[in-house]
Amino acid sequence: MSDAGRNRRSPQSQGRRPDGRGSGERRRDAQRGPTRTVQPARLVAFDVLRAVAATDAYANLVLPPAIAEARLTAQDAALATELTYGTLRRLGTYDAIIAAAADRPTDSIDPAVLDALRLAVHQLLATRVAPHAAVNESVNLVATVSGRGAASFANAVLRRITRESGTAWQERIEEQARSDDERLALRSAHPVWVIRALRRALAAEGRVDELDALLEADNASPDVTLVALPGLAEPGEPRLPYAPTAFASPGGDPRGPVEASGGTIRVQDEGSQLVALALAGARPIAEGERWLDLCAGPGGKTALLAAIAHENDVQLEANEVVPVRARLVRKALRAVPGEVVVHEQDGRALAASRPGEFDRILVDAPCTGLGALRRRPEARWRKTPADVAELVPLQVELLSAALDALAPGGIVAYVTCSPHLAETTGVVQEVLRTRSDIVELDARAAVEDVARSPIDLAADGRRGTGSAQLWPHRHGTDAMFLALLKRPAAADTSGKED
Question: Cβ neighbours of residue 200 under 8 Å, at least 6 residues apart?
Fold first, then answer.
């Protein structure tokens, strides 16, 4: 999924300092003592938190090379991973606790010091790390990166936090909430607007009572899921319940099977696999079909479609507007025999230049990514409702352009890794409102047809549309959305499968 949303830095990344200290005090702090010892795993986690806050990096892209560069042992790598993702998941809650303990808003605290405090609070309240070790290591870290004055401030804040239990701190910050949704936001570590968006999406299925389970699933560490590219690799054990290509990573570390396969086994969420398989299985594949992956980066779905295309003598093309992501697409395709042309154009322009050419098009549209908060926990704090307003017109334009590029009888799969109704059924409704030449197919039936076992896909109770919505709490996948739209052939205006 390409991410066209505007990246925004958090207030904490704007350069404010702890205690409101002036420049003279900061200059004095520049005369630091010797670097203090900090465990490598904590240093790696801290560096990743800084990259996320200061440069809008994604932890899942920054952490693996940071672990490799630091040459962490398997045990330290696991600790760095837990510290990084655990801290990012509960950032909003930890910030509320830090603000209460420091008796000042977090945007008045130096960004580096704040990240060190967040890391410490996670250790104190959510891990089995000994409190004295968490405090001492964190104070040493602050002393190393920000000086003695900042270290004294951090020490005072952390000592104050250790005097009360995590339950007591949770109760204290929830007492300051102005609404039930704010209390839930502090308890579940989700922004209020995200909670409300998820509630509306579940309510559309008549499943609003699942909200707590969904929020809990968002905060759980996801299992590593692998894909075996069809015709090139066989799924290992244990198999996963739905995608016939999916299996769990033995022992959780995917590097062994991935490297041994030469790229025919890859890391890919089961939901991501299912939506690509549903497009390929929406009707029988005819030899010589032409397929297009319009928003292909980083290439996981492209590789899966390419393997299926290779098996069926189908010509696949891909497109990715961001050059660095286009390179990732080409890398993902190396393991698949044959040539897949990867364009680097605005998807709207590419589709407009190829009217009526393609039999199947995947539009994995740029979106907020609210369906992948397990894997990209920082997204919940980075995205805002303004991102939705910016993305929806782009999503509508991409889907409309893709429909124009369909050959008669062709099918578009509109996919987002977000359950936000404005990005999912709202986009589909808006496009269909002005298109009498397009019909919606039953995407739930298409997913059920490719799934290995029965799958609980609730209907949208408001309209009875055929779209399919996956959920982390219900299916163990990212919250992928799928709609299948067809341009009927001249003799077929019913929208039924060919």
Answer: 421
206 sits in the region (left: phi over 0; alpha: psi -120 to 50; else beta) called left
Give, to the nearest 10 degrees, the angle between helix 425-433 and helix 385-404: 50
Q: Which residues are catalytic?
A: 417
SS3 annotation, the chain = CCCCCCCCCCHHHCCCCHHHCCHHHHHHHCCCCCCCCCCHHHHHHHHHHHHHHHHCCCHHHHHHHHHHHHCCCHHHHHHHHHHHHHHHHCHHHHHHHHHHHHCCCHHHCCHHHHHHHHHHHHHHHHCCCCHHHHHHHHHHHHHHHHCHHHHHHHHHHHHHHHCCCHHHHHHHHHHCCCCHHHHHHHHHCCCHHHHHHHHHHHHHCCCHHHHHHHHHHHCCCCCCEEEECCCCCCCCCCECCCCCCEEECHHHCCHHHHHHHCCCEEECCHHHHHHHHHHHCCCCCCCCCEEEECCCCCCHHHHHHHHHHHHCCCEEEEECCCHHHHHHHHHHHCCCCCCCEEECCCHHHHHHCCCCCEEEEEEECCCCCHHHCCCCCCHHHHCCHHHHHHHHHHHHHHHHHHHHCEEEEEEEEEEECCCCCCCCHHHHHHHHHCCCCCEECCHHHHHHHHCCCCCCCCCCCCCCCCCEECCHHHHCCCCCEEEEEECCCCCCCCCCCC
CA distance 216 to 184: 11
> 436 - beta bridge partners?
none
Q: Are 280 and 314 in contact (CB under 8 A)?
A: no
- pLDDT tens per residue across span 79-136: 999 999 999 999 999 999 999 999 999 999 999 999 999 999 999 999 999 999 999 9
Residue found under tokens 């790390």: 129
Which of 477, 375, 458, 368 has its CA nearest to residue 418?
368
Lookup: tokens for 225:
């899921």
Question: Token match 């997204």: residue?
Answer: 379
The parts of the chain modelled with pLDDT lower than 70 are: 1-36, 252, 461-464, 491-498
